[in-house]
Specification:
Elements lengths: L6 E11 L4 H15 L4 E4 L14 E8 L1 H14 L3 E3 L8 E6 L19 E9 L22 H12 L2 E3 L3
Parallel strand pairs: 4-7
Antiparallel strand pairs: 1-3, 1-6, 2-3, 5-6
């Protein structure tokens, strides 16, 4: 196989949306810190949505992004919470995988904390191929060619081969 066509993991993002509930946000911050060992950042709203009581500058969630070795180490723990079973709906056409974990105590090696209670989080795994730097570089930034993007089938194959993920039927 051509080295430029090998799929690899760019990043893993863990995310908890709290809305305007600041108590849930504080619990989410401590939960992500306990799972990853890395302090998360707060996500801030940019829009005003009167019906939800949101205004610009209000923290509404938290997230942490893991790359390279920490990302590769945490993926098996997160997949264990889903019993290594994903559906095709978890994969998008750009080769990304997203799934939710309803209760963090299902994650391997995660201990229950009474201060946090029962809480869930969302996981997004982003894939790339060699040469994806061209869309992020400062000088002569360009798009990734259509033939070089990661497809849904390539992402499924990568997850099956590297993490023994089974693709199940939708419920």
């Amino acid at each position: 196989m051509n080295k430029m066509e090998e799929v690899r993991i760019e990043k893993v993002t863990l995310n908890i949306g709290a809305g305007k509930d600041q108590n849930k946000l504080e619990k989410g911050l401590s939960l992500i810190k306990s799972i990853t060992g890395i302090p998360p950042v707060k996500t801030i709203t940019n829009k005003r949505i009167m019906g939800w009581g949101l205004r610009p500058g209000l923290p509404i969630g938290c997230k942490v992004t893991l790359r390279k070795k920490p990302a590769m180490d945490i993926i098996p723990r997160l997949l264990h919470a889903k019993d290594n079973l994903l559906t095709e709906r978890n994969f998008d056409n750009s080769g990304n995988v997203s799934f939710g974990i309803p209760e963090y105590i299902d994650i391997k090696d995660a201990k229950y904390d009474a201060k946090i209670g029962v809480m869930g989080l969302e996981v997004c795994i982003t894939f790339e191929k060699a040469g994806y730097r061209v869309k992020k570089r400062k000088i002569r930034r360009t798009q990734i060619g259509k033939n070089h993007t990661v497809t849904k089938e390539e992402a499924i194959k990568f997850m099956k081969n590297n993490f023994n993920v089974k693709i199940g039927e939708e419920e």
